[in-house]
């Protein structure tokens, strides 16, 4: 195989595995936060507003971690800066 | 094997494994959120509306993580941008 | 072995493993949701309607994740788009 | 070994492992749902009807996941669509 | 080794491992269901009839999953449909 | 090594590992059921009869799963049907 | 190495590992049953008779699983039926 | 393959895996902190201010750990100082 | 290496690992039974006699499992019946 | 590949994995400390001052561990003292 | 390497690993028994005599399991009976 | 590769992994100690002095373990005594 | 490499790993025993004498297990009896 | 590579891994003991003296286990007795 073929091949595999692994625990963390929010809502319905605000900020923070992973995967798939060393 | 055959082969395997791994923990997280929603409903039936709204937002957030994974898998299967380096 | 034989072989193995792994945690998540629904029914029999509705929506969401996995597996088995690069 | 022999061999192994892995967690999930149903029955004997209905729907949903796995295994053993590429 | 010898060898190993793995979690699930049934019996002796009925249906459902696994193993040992491609 | 030697060797190893793995979780499940039966006996001594009946049925169901495994192992050791393809 | 040497070697290793693995979880299950029996004795000293009877039946059932494993190991060490194919 | 190709290939794979692994446990830790904040809000609505301040400081500390990982990954992808030894 | 050397080597390794693995879980099970016995003694000092009798029978049963493992290891080290096939 | 290329390659991979592994458990530990601080705040709002001081000291101690890891990774990437043996 | 060198080498490694693995779980079991004894002492100081007697018998039983492992390791290091086959 | 290159390479990798593994559990242990200190502060605000003193001694002890690891890593990176055998 | 070099190399590695593995669980067991002793002291300060005596005997028993491991490691490092077969 | 180079290389790696593994569980055990001491202090402030004495003895015992590991690592790095066989 040519060098380029090897790099295409392994980059594809790495991207697939990285996104699969990278959404795992953020999903679990979201599930935990949401389930706790639901429990808090059932216990203190009158403080729904502050619960919802905290939940949304929290989900955004966790989502940001998954986004880091997605961004790196997209960089690898669409515009890998390391390939410039080879294409020169 | 030709280069292209190797890439087809490993991309297929990676896509299959990535989707299998990538739906695992989102499913678990959903199960957790739903089961907590059911418990909250049984404890506070009168706040059903806010529980359902929180649950749906939460499920959508978790689903989005699984969708990230599905999108990357579909990109790899149907239109892998890295293949352009080889087809040129 | 010819290239095509290798691809058939690994695609078959990957499809089998992917469906086996991909139904694992959705099944667990369903079991969790159902068992919680049963507990809620025993604690609040009068809110059966809203419990059942929430449970069905939840099971459908989890099922959708397993369906993603099944769809990818069926695409690989019956009509793998990557094979077009080779058959051309 | 001939190409066909390799494919027969690996398909057999993959089918055996896939069905073994694929029934694992659905079984666990069923055990969880059933044990919760039994506990609910002991706590609320008078709502037996709605408990049984929920349990049966739940078991059917979980069973469906194991059936997905069984179907893929049977497709691989009896009529693998990928083999047509080779038999042509 | 001849092709047929390799296939006999790996099929035997796969069958042994598949049945060993495939009875693992159904056994655990049964143990869970039975132990819960015993606890429910101790707590509500008068609803023994409905507990036993639910337990038997549940055990049959779990047993069915182990049977799927056993059937696939027996098919592989006694009458593997894939072998027809080779014996022709 | 001759073909037959390889098959004897791997069949022996597979049989030993399969029975070792196959009795693991049934043993655990039995331990769970028995320990729960003992707890129920201590809590409800007067319903000993129905507890013992449920326990025995349960142990028989779990034992059946271990027997499946033992039967497959004995078939492999004493009369492997796949060997007929080679002895012909 | 001769064929026979390989088989002696692997059979010895397989026997040693199988017995080591095969006594693991039965031991754990026994420990669980015994510890529960001790707790039940402390809670209900007057029903010692039925507790002891249940415990002994349970330990015998679990022991039977370990015996299956021991029997297979002894068959492999002392009189492996598969060796007849080679000694003929 | 040339030396540079190997380095590009492995750097890409390492970057993908490192970001996937590196966001895992920070995500879990955030989920834990957020879910506890939600519980505290439900129990002590009047101290919302100090709870939110502590939560934000905590999330920032955890996020900093994920950022360390992201920074190293970006250094590897965009400007790896070790490459200067080779490009000289 | 001669055949005999290989067999001596692997038998030694297998014996060492088998005894190490084989005492693991029996030790854990004993620890569990003893700790429960101590708790029962503290709760019901007057039924010390029946607690001690049950504990000793239980420890003997668990010890028997470790003895199975020790016996197989000693057979392998001192008088392996399979070696007769080679020494003849 | 030249010696230098191999060292660049493995150093890069090791740095990426080390930072990914090294932030994992500090993140988890921080999550634990923060979530406990939030619970303590909800239970004892009046001792906020001493809780915050303890939390900050604790987070600094845990952060120091992650910093050790980051420092070693940066040493490896930017100025590895072992390379002097080769560049001389 | 000569045969004897290989055997010395692997025996040494196996002995080191076996003793390391073999003291693991007995240590854990002892820790469990001792910690329970301490709790029982705190709850029932007046039955110290019977608690200490039970604890000592239990520790001796667990220690015996670790001794089995130590004995096999010493046999392998100092006087391996299998070596006689080679020294003859 | 020259001998020195191999040693530089593996020392670098080992140092990176060792520091990553070596800070893992000390971090977890610190998290546990700190979270317990926070809980104790909330329960007994008046004994803050003795809690803080115990916490600091404990954190110092745990930190010392991580320092052992860091020292060995720095010795390997900056002044490995074993290298003198080679440089002589 | 000469035979002796191989043996020195593997013995060193085995000794390092064995001591690392062998102190793991004794340390955990000690931590458990000590933490329970501290809890008992807080609950029953007046029985400090018997608690301390039991704790010291227990720690000595657990320490003995770690000492077994240390002794075997020192035998391997300083005076391995198996080396006499080679030095003769 | 020369023999000495191989030994230097593997000794360095083994030392790094051994110290990393060897401080793991002692750290966890310390964390457990300290957190329990903090809880006991909060529950029984007046018995601070005996709690601190027990904690210090316990930490010293656990530290001794980590020291065993450190000593073996330092012996391997600075003065490995096995090297005398080679330097002679």
Describe the overall structure:
- The structure is a homo-oligomer of 14 chains of 88-residue chains.
- Chain A is an all-alpha fold.
- Chain A has a single domain (3-87), classed as F1F0 ATP synthase subunit C (F1FO ATP Synthase, Up-down Bundle), CATH 1.20.20.
- Helices cover 85% and strands 0% of the residues of chain A.
- Chain A contains four helices and no strands.
- Chain A has helices spanning 3-22, 24-43, 48-78, 84-87.
- The mean pLDDT of chain A is 92.
- At the B-C interface, helix 1, helix 2 and helix 3 of B face helix 1, helix 2 and helix 3 of C.
Listing every helix as H and every strand as E from the N terminus to the C terminus, the arrangement of chain A reads HHHH
Tell me the CATH architecture of chain A: Up-down Bundle
The oligomerization state is homo-oligomer of 14 chains
Name the CATH class of chain A.
Answer: Mainly Alpha
């Amino acid at each position: 195989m040519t060098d380029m073929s090897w790099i295409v091949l392994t980059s594809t595999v790495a991207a697939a595995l990285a996104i699969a692994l990278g959404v795992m625990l953020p999903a679990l963390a979201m599930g935990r936060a949401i389930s706790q929010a639901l429990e808090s809502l059932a216990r203190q319905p009158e403080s729904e507003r502050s619960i919802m605000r905290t939940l949304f900020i929290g989900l955004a923070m966790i989502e940001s971690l998954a986004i880091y992973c997605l961004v790196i995967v997209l960089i690898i798939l669409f515009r890998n800066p390391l390939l410039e060393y080879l294409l020169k």
